[in-house]
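Reviewers of the previous submission asked for a worked example of the structure-prediction workflow described in the proposal, so we include one complete record here. The input consisted solely of the amino acid sequence. No template or homolog information was supplied to the procedure at any stage.
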Amino acid sequence: MIYINGDSHSAGAELVQDYCFAKDDPRYLAWGRRAHPEAIPLTFGYKIAQSLNQPFFMDAESASSNARILRTTRQFVKQTQNKSKLFCIIGWTTWEREEWLDGETYYQLTASGTDSVPEHMVEDYKHWVSQQTRVELDLKESIWHKKIAEFGTELTEQGIKHLFFHTSEYTSYLLAQGYKTVNGGYHFGADAHTAWYKHLLPQVMEKFGVQNTLTNTPKRSIINTVKEQFRGFN
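From that input alone, the workflow returned the following structure tokens.
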């Protein structure tokens, strides 16, 4: 199974009109913050799964923090029985983002200052945004490099193949290839997702031997319910 986690770039934000979350489309209000179901087949992750004739699970979410990516990936891995057939592809996001738990609800916070939080969290959120200085971001980058490296080791010890990249690596590659963002924003179209899929596929197949270990199951997909060591995190 190809498992995808990450932020809006992995979730396929704005591949369908200007929708970042499924709930942005009146037809999919019940889907909440999950990836838009019509965008998923256009994403690089889905294309990798199709090329390898593999089941697919989309766990990426727009505006996601690295804390959420780490938490939900661990949950998925824990619930997966046949870990030897699992391949995790994770696009880590910007370092400043955090995840705050309020009661039983997780809130994803960015430094935009526009995130929606409960009234009793508003002042704390405003203060947090003001603290996202260059020094603070450098510290968080160092902390997350360590956490991500440790998580890579954690997956390896469980026999789980994985490919890690950072969103800055993704955007830099596509811009260098001449691809433009859509809707005047930060996200790329379906053609760019195809280009990133073609860029990642040889790494998945050659560096991790996927062609020998993951191609014996029938093609199917599940729509939402490694980088070698640390290349690209300079």
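Helices lie at 8-11, 44-51, 66-79, 122-130, 134-157, 167-176, 190-207, 210-213. We consider this example representative of the routine output the project will generate in years two and three.
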